[in-house]
Write a structure and sequence with these properties.
- The protein has 828 residues and is mostly beta strands.
- The protein has 7 domains: 118 residues, Sandwich (Immunoglobulin-like), CATH 2.60.40; 111 residues, Immunoglobulin-like (Sandwich), CATH 2.60.40.60; 87 residues, Sandwich (Immunoglobulin-like), CATH 2.60.40; 96 residues, Immunoglobulin-like, CATH 2.60.40; 111 residues, Immunoglobulin-like (Sandwich); 94 residues, Cadherins (Immunoglobulin-like, Sandwich), CATH 2.60.40.60; 140 residues, Cadherins (Immunoglobulin-like), CATH 2.60.40.
- The strands form 18 sheets. Strands 52, 55, 58, 59 and 60 form a 5-stranded mixed sheet that branches. It has a 4-stranded mixed sheet with strand order 1-3-6-5. It has a 4-stranded mixed sheet with strand order 2-8-7-4, with helices on one face.
- The longest helix has 17 residues.
- It is elongated.
- The protein binds 2-acetamido-2-deoxy-beta-D-glucopyranose (NAG) (7 copies).
- One 2-acetamido-2-deoxy-beta-D-glucopyranose (NAG) binds next to loops.
Length: 828
């Protein structure tokens, strides 16, 4: 820096200091020699004044020592400045000393310590320590448990956002339906399985995956963050920690216990196994050893408990579970160890006097605790004795397998014996049991039930009368022997209620019948019904006696209307359309009807985006605006059906419109790359970085972008890296002007290749220590002392010695043409 310029600056500074209130003799920019600390941003324009020290006689000049690195200088008159941009990553703190000297060069004041704190700017890209990582994961590993790390470094200050790294998985290959099997901790780079990954990864289906992970600085939260990518290959290994097949254990086993029944194995040796009882049984008859072998510890009893479910866990030496517990299913296999049992100490049947030969008396069913539908529980019946044997033995027979009792020889007479006691032998495969059956001979059923009245009149009910309501009591009487099947009455509705809306429950002590609503009444389908009851006995009538009109009764049921709201056929109507359907397309329809048959008018509510309309008459739904999946992937509105006329009752249902993605968002540059520049003249080939992105659903985004130069003529001067957006010069021989660059983004998807062409510009401009001209105020952060002066200085220098004003920085050219080619896989 030539003295002339500095002098000019000093004059300017002086005038600034003097004209500004608050900056006195010992103000922010100047003062006597004392220990001081100056924070200065790295990478600043050079030749910046830091402070003006004032000398007190006899001091006439100053001397600077310490870690100056030939950057910091002091003028004899006390002006402290620096001549090159600072680099925090080279030295974060410069410890300087300044002494005041007299005319003979002897120290008269100081030296005092002057500390320069170099503040960080984001001038370093994060870099993965490896460009390729390899790892492996066991199938079914716990979600969120890291199985490998990727690691990047950034030379910037980790205490500032500049050095704070943010990891992301950009691509997972293969990727079916956009389901991510892997996740990365955005701070630590730890890679683990997602819940789906834990459940679905299967080395048989797919033994390896490839991820592209990115790391960004600025905590990933800034448009201006730098990034790097790395490739991660992951091998999926089979999991032998699997639930064993369900085990069958024979009950009542006489083998010595404990008895090994199955086993589990952790993927590596050294696991600690234990069992957990899901049902908290008082006695838990299983155990596991440290090999993972599972034992039953005592004989089981299927009739007490026929299956067991419990868990096997594997833990590490600190008692932390290594994986999900496995469910062990044990089924207890039946043996025939239970004799048949009688249903009750004595089973009672009735038979009428005079009933004919072969008449069915009843069915006897004994029980067997052993497993149903096996040979162990198939029962056989046999009558072994009859008391009394009057008029003779063998009056009854029983069907061998069904247990059905019949009259074997003749009708019975109460005078002969009113009661018979039978002993029945019931046998299964191995056991025999005796049961007792008592047969009572009862009076003949020669009386029919007679209704107290044949017409119970008219009954008017609103249609919303509750189910369960008793609406009528009916009564018939029967003069046969009380409390037998000859006098017991069952009421049946034989006419007027095909829908089964009514039922009759009988009180067997009084033979009273209670008519009850079993299903909702409906004015619209059955406003008037004529109901007919029949009263019957469970025992058949003796021949010659028949039910006559006295055993029937009727009543008229009149149901009155209650106005009901319209009814939708579904609670939720679903439809699916492509997001790019033309405005006016029918996207779905809904249907409702009014129980009273009134006309219905449809309308929509909740159409917050104004995308849909409904035809009030037909319920058809149409789009009225362009739809956008990226705004709503499932658009939910409510449909309302209103009665036209009447009381305008209304009801509501839901309409869910699923929008399927179409690739309607072209990729774009991730941000505005105005101001990409390289310093002219180039000393070594240089490069600029850019990034592309796409707003569509991931399946359309394709595996990745690849980049290529947009035209062949560019290839003489430039090259672009295929994967990263890095544009490099091929030589150093460029003019000081703006170069328009076109870049192809190629997107490979399963079905097609898309090529997009983008344009932006790179400016070659004369630089001031690595910085192109930038207007005042574009620096980040609050200006510090050093920085404020720096801006002033740079501006002056630019005006004085350089002319960058003709080097405007255009952004992306607005009218750059965009080409899209789509080709099939053949031409690929
Ligand atoms: C990442 O690398 C840095 C520097 O080598 C090291 O200090 C840090 O421990 C590493 N982190 C992990 C998770 O390996
Ligand atoms: C980073 O991960 C944490 C959880 O690990 C999450 O809460 C946070 O939202 C993530 N940050 C971003 C920007 O995604
Ligand atoms: C085991 O079987 C024998 C007959 O084989 C039987 O006496 C015993 O009660 C059975 N034990 C259990 C627990 O079922
Ligand atoms: C039948 O057995 C019952 C006891 O269960 C007894 O009271 C009754 O007198 C017996 N009847 C005849 C006819 O043996
Ligand atoms: C019962 O209703 C019927 C038909 O509605 C009617 O003809 C009859 O007169 C009514 N009887 C009584 C007693 O109200
Ligand atoms: C039905 O039969 C009974 C006798 O069993 C008789 O008393 C009654 O009058 C009969 N009813 C009709 C309507 O015939
Ligand atoms: C839509 O309308 C058609 C006839 O136009 C009908 O068959 C279909 O059931 C309706 N769909 C719904 C959900 O109402």
């Amino acid at each position: 820096i030539c003295d002339r310029v500095l002098h000019f600056i000093l004059l300017l500074l002086e005038s600034l200091i003097n004209s500004t209130t608050g900056y006195g003799q010992d103000g922010k920019f100047s003062g006597p020699l004392k220990p001081m600390t100056f924070p200065i941003f790295e990478g600043q324009e050079p030749s910046q004044v830091i402070y003006q020290f004032k000398a007190n006689p006899p001091a006439v000049s100053f001397e600077l020592t310490g870690e100056t690195d030939n950057i910091f200088k002091i003028q004899p008159d006390g002006l402290l400045y620096y001549v090159r941009a600072l680099d925090r990553e080279t030295r974060a703190t410069h410890n300087l000393q300044i002494a005041a000297l007299d005319a003979h060069g002897a120290t008269v004041e100081g030296p005092v310590p002057i500390t320069i704190e170099v503040k960080d700017i984001n001038d370093n890209r994060p870099m993965f320590l490896q460009s390729k990582y390899e790892g492996s994961v066991r199938q079914n590993s716990r979600p969120g448990k890291p199985f490998m790390y990727v690691n990047a470094t950034d030379l910037d200050d980790p205490a500032t956002p500049n050095g704070q790294l943010f990891y992301q998985i950009v691509i997972q290959l293969p990727n079916v339906n956009g389901v991510m099997y892997f996740q990365i901790n955005n701070k630590t780079g730890a890679i683990s399985l997602t819940r789906q990954g834990s459940q679905e990864l299967d080395p048989v289906k797919n033994p390896s995956y490839n991820l592209v992970v990115s790391v960004k600085d600025m905590g990933g939260q800034s448009e201006n963050s730098f990034s790097d990518t790395a490739s991660v290959d992951i091998t999926v290994k089979e999991n032998i920690w699997k639930a064993p097949e369900p085990v069958e254990v024979l009950e009542n086993s006489t083998d010595p216990h404990p008895l090994k029944i199955t086993q589990v194995r952790w993927n590596e040796p050294g696991a600690h196994y234990s069992l957990a009882d899901r049902d908290k049984l008082p006695i838990f008859p299983f155990s596991i050893d440290q090999e993972g072998d599972i034992y039953v510890t005592q004989p089981l009893d299927r009739e007490k408990k026929d299956s067991y479910i419990f868990y096997a866990t594997a833990k590490d030496e600190y008692g932390k579970p290594l994986a999900f517990p496995l469910e062990i299913h044990v089924k207890v296999k039946d043996i025939n160890d239970n004799p048949p049992t009688c249903p009750s100490p004595v089973t009672v049947f009735e038979v009428q006097e005079n009933e004919g030969l072969g008449s069915s008396i009843g069915t006897f069913t004994a029980l067997d605790m052993d497993e149903e539908n096996t040979i162990h529980s198939v029962l056989k019946y046999k009558i072994v004795s009859q008391t009394p044997q009057i008029p003779n033995d063998g009056l009854f027979l029983v069907e061998e397998y069904s247990g059905k009792f019949q009259l074997a020889k003749q009708s019975l007479k109460k005078q002969d014996a009113p009661q018979y006691n039978l002993t029945v032998e019931v046998s299964d495969q191995d056991f025999k049991t005796l049961c007792f059956v008592q047969i009572n001979v009862i009076d003949i059923n020669d009386q029919i039930p007679i209704f107290e009245k044949s017409d119970y009149g008219n009954l008017t009910l609103p249609e919303d009368t509750a189910v369960g309501t008793i609406i009528l009591t009916i009564q018939a009487t029967d003069d046969d022997e009380p409390f037998t099947g000859s006098s017991k009455i069952l009421y049946r509705i034989i006419q007027g209620d095909n829908e089964g809306r009514l039922g009759v429950d009988t009180d067997h002590h009084t033979n009273r019948g209670y008519v009850t609503i079993k299903k909702p009444l409906d004015f619209e389908t059955a406003a008037f019904s004529s109901i007919v009851f029949k009263a019957e006995n469970p025992e058949p009538l003796v021949s010659g006696v028949t039910y006559n009109a006295s055993s029937f009764a009727s009543f008229k049921l009149i149901v009155t209307d209650v106005n009901e709201a319209p009814v939708f056929s579904q609670d939720v109507f679903q439809a699916k359309v492509r997001e790019d359907v033309a405005v006016g397309t029918k996207v779905g329809n809904v249907t409702a009807w009014d129980p009273e048959g009134l006309a219905i008018s449809y309308s929509l509510t909740g159409d917050t985006r104004g995308w849909l309309k409904i035809d009030p008459g037909t319920g058809e739904i149409f789009s009225v605006a362009p739809l956008d999946r990226e705004a709503e992937s499932v658009y939910r509105v409510q449909v309302v059906a209103t009665e036209v006329g009447g009381s305008s009752l209304r009801s509501t249902s839901n309409f869910h419109l699923t929008l399927t993605d179409v690739n309607d968002n072209p990729p774009r540059l991730a941000k505005d790359y105005s101001g990409l520049f390289l310093c002219h003249p180039l000393s070594t080939p240089g490069s600029v970085i850019f990034e592309a992105t796409d707003d569509d659903q991931q399946s359309f985004r394709g595996p990745q972008f690849t980049f290529a130069l947009g035209s062949e003529t560019l290839q003489n001067d430039w090259e672009v890296s295929k994967i990263n957006g890095e544009l490099s010069t091929k030589h150093t021989d460029f003019e000081e002007r703006l170069y328009k660059i076109s870049i192809q983004f190629c997107i490979f998807t399963e079905f097609f290749v898309q090529i997009y062409l983008f344009c932006f510009s790179v400016t070659f401009c004369t630089c001031v220590d690595g910085k192109c001209f930038r207007p005042v105020g574009s620096q980040e952060g609050r200006p510090t002392v050093g920085m404020a002066v720096g801006i002033l200085l740079t501006t002056l220098l630019v005006i004085g010695r350089y002319s960058c004003s003709d080097v405007e920085m255009p952004g992306i050219l607005q009218n750059c043409p965009l080409y899209i080619f789509m080709t099939g896989p053949d031409s690929l």
